[in-house]
């Protein structure tokens, strides 16, 4: 658990990458997308320990085929990559790796 008076929120990029991974897995994209820009991020505390993150991000198409074990860190962007904007809502328990994050909503256009 988080020590009192500590900011234990996860870095927005970690949360965004988690959401993008889930979105890729649920989609039928031929190539995986990765986060290239975080437009906005907000976090709401839900006592006792949960945090709801609302992110708006830009994602770009990579050269990596979209499959469950794709490692987006190593994926280069396509030269004329398709860009999409996504809104994600994620619930998490920061500082606790045993409780998985959940993607509550995702919308990409």
UniProtKB/TrEMBL annotation:
Pfam families: Cystatin (PF00031). This is Cystatin domain-containing protein. One of its GO terms (cellular component) is extracellular space. One of its GO terms (molecular function) is cysteine-type endopeptidase inhibitor activity. Belongs to the cystatin family. PANTHER family: CYSTATIN, CYSTATIN C (AMYLOID ANGIOPATHY AND CEREBRAL HEMORRHAGE)-RELATED. InterPro entries: Cystatin_dom, Cystatin_sf. Residues 15-94 form the Cystatin domain.
